[in-house]
Design brief:
Elements: E1 4-9, H1 17-28, E2 34-38, H2 46-56, E3 63-68, E4 79-83, E5 88-92, H3 98-103, E6 109-112, H4 128-141, E7 153-154, E8 168-169, E9 173-181, E10 187-189, H5 193-197, E11 206-211, E12 214-221, E13 233-236, E14 242-245, H6 251-255, E15 262-266
Parallel strand pairs: 1-2, 1-3, 3-5, 12-13
Antiparallel strand pairs: 4-5, 4-6, 6-7, 8-9, 9-10, 9-15, 10-14, 11-12, 11-15, 13-14
Length: about 270
């Protein structure tokens, strides 16, 4: 049975890169289905891409993940395939894939993409999504290439890792940071609702919060529309983490914050 390829990148949709990669897949097997996750990952933002894939992997069809955010293309970083209980993840060895792997039970094996029969000959060394990643993804998804034929098996301990920063919880404070800002300006933190509940906080409570140097109050809300008008709120977002939001507005612009901005909640 042919496998579905789920494709994510930082290519955008303006210069044709996405269409070229999908064209390579179709030329190998025109019956393959490609599920586009996103091609709007901020350019070269491995952290953002890694977090996005971690969220997406739980909901996309099992099969093949083709993920490309690759500022080190052409350098010594390896093109790799990682096997998991979910399926096979193909992309650069730069930390992009490891959170998605961990979400579905961890990596089982990893292989370098070195079989010359599935590398498109190329003059430059700057478009591995076209020349290496997509041919291997299509060949495997269509059943023309076995995992053991990809290339040498790699030591899992040698793979690059991106790790979510830990929170710092004390008696009266929960310290974290913004991990991810979405399209609406909602700011997801690495703080879990359980950490707030352990401080005897509940939905409806108002807390003192500091984002970078700004100190203000925020209400823990049930929905994005239940915050104080004109004021920020906290909500458990669709990924189960505490997010800072502005009802019918953009919290990021109001707070002038970004991913990695420090967040402190006083209890």
């Amino acid at each position: 049975m042919k496998k579905i390829i789920s494709f994510a990148s930082d290519f955008g949709l303006d210069d044709g890169s996405v269409g070229v990669v999908k064209g390579v897949i179709s030329r190998i097997d025109h019956e393959l289905q490609v599920n586009d996750i996103s091609h709007g990952i901020p350019p070269q933002d491995i952290k953002y891409g890694s977090l996005m894939l971690m969220r997406a992997i739980q909901y996309i069809p099992q099969g093949v993940l083709l993920a490309v955010v690759d500022p080190g293309v052409g350098t010594e970083r390896k093109p790799i395939a990682i096997t998991t209980d979910w399926g096979v993840m193909i992309g650069p060895d730069n930390g992009l894939l490891n959170l998605a792997c961990a979400t579905v039970g961890g990596a089982k094996k990893a292989f370098a993409l070195e079989n010359p029969n599935w590398i498109i000959p190329h003059e430059g060394n700057t478009f591995h999504a076209r020349d290496i990643f997509s041919p291997f993804a299509a060949a495997y998804a269509s059943g023309q290439l076995k995992l053991e034929e990809f290339g040498p098996e790699l030591d899992l301990e040698s793979l690059k890792q991106y790790l979510i920063p830990l929170t710092d919880v004390t008696e009266n404070e929960v310290k974290g940071e913004i991990l991810y800002v979405d399209h609406y300006g909602n700011c997801q933190t690495n703080i879990s609702p359980e950490e707030l509940k352990q401080k005897n906080l509940k939905i409806g409570d108002v807390v003192n919060i500091k984002v970078d140097a700004q100190e203000l109050q925020a209400k823990w809300c049930e929905t994005y529309q239940s915050g104080n008008i004109g004021g920020i709120g906290l909500v458990i977002d669709s990924w189960g983490m505490v997010s800072i939001f502005l009802p019918s507005g953009n919290a990021q612009k109001l707070l002038n914050c970004k991913d990695s901005s420090k967040v402190l909640i006083k209890v």
